[in-house]
Automatic annotation (TrEMBL):
InterPro entries on file: Virul_fac_BrkB (IPR017039)
One GO CC annotation: plasma membrane
Short name of one Pfam family: Virul_fac_BrkB
Topology in membrane: Multi-pass membrane protein
Species, as recorded: Actinomadura rubrisoli
Keyword field: Cell membrane, Membrane, Transmembrane, Transmembrane helix
Major location (coarse): membrane
Region annotation (Disordered) ranges: 23-61
Protein name: YihY/virulence factor BrkB family protein
Amino acid sequence: MREPDRAASPWASRSDAAIAAVPVEGGRPTPDAEGAANNTAITAVPVEGGRPTPDAEGTASNTAIGSHAVTTVSDAAGAAPAGDPGSEGPHVSARGWARRAALKAARLARAAAGTATYVGWKLVKGTAVAAFRYRVTGLAAEAAFFALLSLPPLVIGLVGTMGHFRSALGADTVLDIRTWLIERSQTVLTGQAVESVVVPLIDEVIKGGSPDIVSVSFLISLWAGSRATNVYVDTITIAYGLSGIRGVIRTRLRAFFLYLVGLLVMLILIPLLVAGPALVRRALPESAGFVLMFYWPVVVSLSIMFLAMLYHMSVPVRTAWWREVPGAVVALVMWIVGSVTLRLYLTGSLSGVSVYGSLSAAIAVLAWLYVAALAVLIGAALNAEIDRLWPSAGTARARAVREQRVGDEDGTNGKNSA
C-alpha cells in the first residue's frame, strides 16, 4: 500500500513542524510544553477570514501529543472568550436555579405531607385500638349512669346554695341564673327533657328548698359525682399504661377532690357567666358588642382548661400541662358535634309518641351524658397515644418501673407455682 505524500499538503508540513517544536522528555512532552504545544497546534492551522479553512477544520480535529489531548480547532473557534458567560448563560443559570429550588421545595412538601399523614394515621389508629382495648364505650356508659344519679342532687345543691346567697347575689341574679341554666339546657337537650326534668327541679329548689334537703342532696351528689369522676381518673390511668402506680384509696380521694373542685368552679363561673356580661353592659354600655364578641371564646377556653386539668390531675405522674391540650380540644369538639347530632335525632324521634313514654326525658339526658363521657375518654386515649409516640420523662420512667415490678411479680409467682 502506497504511503500518502505528506509533502504535497501545506497542512502536513505545518503540523509536523508544530509537533517537532514540542520539547520531549522520556518519550512524552514535558509539563511546560503542553501549553506551548496547544498554541502551536492551533497556530499551525491555515486561517482564512479569521476562521480555519474548510480543509483544515476536519484535519486538525484530533491532534494528540502522547496521552495529552490538544484542544481542537473547531472547539476553539466556537467557544466564547474566557470570562464571558455568553448571551444566554446568566438567564439559563437563573432558570435552572429556580427550577432546582422549586423541585427541592416540592420534594420537601411531599415529604412533610407524607410524614404528617403517617403520624396522623398512626394517632388515629392507636387511639381507636386503645378505645376498644380499654372498653371506652362501656366505661362511658358507667360514667354517664353515675353522672345521671348525681345530676339532680347536684342541681339542687348548686341552685340551693345560690339561693342561700340571694342577698349577696341579688334576686335578679338568681332569676338570671335560672333562665341561663334553662337556656343552656335547651341547647343540648330536647324541649320535653327540659320541661319535664330541668325546669321543675330548678323551680322547686329556688322557691322552697330547705337547708336539710340541700345538705342531703350535696352528700348524694358528692358520692355519685365522685364515683363518675373516678371512672375518668381510672380509665385515663389505664390508658397511659400506669395502672397500679396510684393505690385505690388515693385514686378515690383524687376523684373526690376533682369533683369538689369542679363544683367550686361551677359555683363561681355560673354567676360570672350570667351576671358578668350584664354588669359590663350596665357599666360600659358602649362596649356591649365587644363583650358579646369575646363571650363564647372565653367559654370555650375555660372548657378546654377544665378538661386539661382533669387529664393532668388524673395521670399519676407529673407531666406538662400543654401535653393535655390536644385531647381536651378533641374532646370538646366531639362533645359539641355529638350534642348537636343527638339533639337533632332526639327532636325528630321523640317529637311524637315515643315508645319510652315518661322515660323519654331521662333517657335523653342519659344519652347526652354518655356522649359527653365518651368524648372525654376518647380525648384521654388520644393524649395517651401521643405520650406513647413522644413520651415524657416522667411517664417513660413510671412505665419502666411498672413493667419491672410486673416482671418481678410474674417471676415470683412462677417460682411459687413450681
